Amino acid sequence: MTEKTRTIDIPHLGGSRVGYRFGKPYDPSLPTLIMNNSFTTSVELFRPQFADSELMSVANLLAIEPYGHGETWPSYRQFTYWDSAIANLQVLDALGIADAFALGTSQGGWIVTQTAMLAPDRIRGIIPLGTSMDNESQHSRDLGCWNGTEFCTPAIDALAGPVPDDWTVPNGFVHGVLESGLGDTVTPEDRAFWLEVYRRNYRGDAGRERLRTCAINLRDRDSLKARIGSVTCPVLWIHGTDDSVYSVANAENGIALFTQSADAQLKIVEGGQHFLSASHPQQVNPAAVAFINRWR
After folding, report:
1. Rounded CA gap, 217 and 211, in Å?
2. Which of 162, 182, 252, 264 gives the lowest tally of CB atoms within 10 Å of its CB?
3. Where would I find the beta strands (DSSP E) of the chain?
4. pLDDT mean over 240-252
């Protein structure tokens, strides 16, 4: 049975409370797989992974919520994706785990890559899903990716001013994220579930501010392309053909940059959506099992 979401204290950003969830009680005989979720979602994104008995049998599944997501809150009011990568490592420290594999969906894909850049001796392999190593550049749009500036800027502008205590995230924002992430696989049950999660995580003025910072981070993030040579661990990049945010051509461009990795492979999932771990776990989970077994 999947464990509940818990929090743990780490020293980063003036002291932070980080939300995390294990799939089951920690087993020191197994390797650990960190999992970082997509933009404005939570550990709940990985319910299909926590429900997979085979995946749970080969690794401790440890979902960690990045800054601005779920139960993760810093003392300082600003944060970036690099801070979430540092938090991954400090959560491992706090839990007494020496090293780990790392899987991340969308923004989680570059967070786990950054984690491997920061601590190549601790990250044994990474599995980026439906992601990009670039910023919101013209080059990525030329390769068929979305225009992230057009998606994020209206929300950033709309969230610029204070809101009352009873404010919650607009339904339209949630629907937009789900449509971008899951496309035509979104069910009415999915919408109802995620509306409840979002309303819990983004409410009042503090919720408004953290949501705005998440959108700023997505729009204004730095490119990782020049730094990818510092990643030495194995890489399995999995990408869906129906990803409406980042294209297969962009994934092909990105995986070719991992020139110093022990092994770098791109796996294409036919019909796969942007939030690939949620839309196509039947392809993602067995691939993760094989990757961990190969490199453990």
Report:
1. 10
2. 162
3. 6-10, 16-22, 32-36, 60-64, 73-74, 100-105, 123-129, 235-240, 264-269
4. 98
